[in-house]
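Notes from the 1:1 (GR / supervisor)

We went over the backlog. Supervisor wanted to see one worked example end to end before approving the batch request, so GR pasted a single chain during the call. The sequence is below; no edits were made to it. Supervisor asked that the structure be written out right there so they could see what the output format looks like.
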Amino acid sequence: MKTVFKNLTFWVLIAIIAGILLGHYAPATAIKMEIVGKTFVNIIKLFIGPIIFLTIVLGISGMGDLKKVGRIGLKSLIYFEVLTTFALAIGIVVAVIIQPGKISKTGLQEQDPSKYTNTSGHAGFNWADFFLSNFTLQILLVAIVVGIVLNFSKHREAAVHTLSKWSKLVFKGLKYVMYLAPLGAFGGMAYTIGKFGLHTLIPLAKLMGTVYLTMFLFVFLILGAILRYYKLSIFKFLKYIEEELLLVLGTSSSESALPTLMQKLEKMGCSKSVVGLVVPTGYSFNLDGTSIYLSMSVIFLAQLYNVHLSLAEMASIIGILMVTSKGAAGVTGSGFIILASTLTAIHKIPVEGLAFLLGVDKFMSEARAITNIIGNGVATIVIAKSEKEFITPAGGEFAKD
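Structure output shown during the call:
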């Protein structure tokens, strides 16, 4: 029992259950808990920049081979695009088979989608805007440049020694902040249930069930098969990062678990340089859960309005979302702007259909965020394994795989 009570995962789970109960039975009080969840996520975000910077700089300056840095980056981007295509395709296929949109619109709760649809004319993907609005990518670029410069500097050893000290301090600070994780999970879950209510799930239960089923299939069939190829178990990996998954479930934010995910992947055996390059890049380019949700939402709305889509049109939806889904990283509400721009580009499905998705979207954000973090963890392992940059610690829980 002492071990259970000292386990952070146990307290996060208790906090999530308490948040659900408060949200259901005292919604007015639960809505006020939003500040608790947001404050925790904002504190965690303060660590993201320093951790990415220090991990990448130390990784690159310690690697020595700059060609390897470029190869890892290119390999990661190719892997991300292939997996994103799989995610978009599986979302469309499952939605076509199960047909979650074959329901009556009359019983559905509507919300005002104008703040997303009004910007749809200007929502085309723009690389400059994408970079300027993406703090993670900016830190990534600066860190890569500093790491390369350090490789050629005569002060390299002294700089690496100093940065290593700072890295230990930052991770020590993160360790103490993570003790607040149950509060963050409680605040996030209480607000979600209090604000939107469990009753809003009933009319769109078929869509929610389809989304969660698809994410489940993607994680255990696609990502599971990839890990099995490298003689690793998806079940062991999920058990290994269960703390991060529960935290993401409570806060609806995959960013809340980014620092500790990087730390755990290093402990698992992935080299610091691979973790530093792949994880931050993946948070911008490898959004498997978001891709599944976006493609399923388009098909759901087409079915809701009885709009027939040909195979060519479905292929074009995948093509459009391959580019526009990149803009969904790290900006609240960006997924709806992307959906609006995609629907506008297709010219067949009413953009106003977003009004039906708004009420239930918050309950699907957990599935998106969890799938995103699992996908980025698997991507890091794949790149580390393929680059022979994966060394399982003796006696570690993955040693026997």
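Supervisor's comment: The chain has 19 helices and no strands.
Batch request approved.
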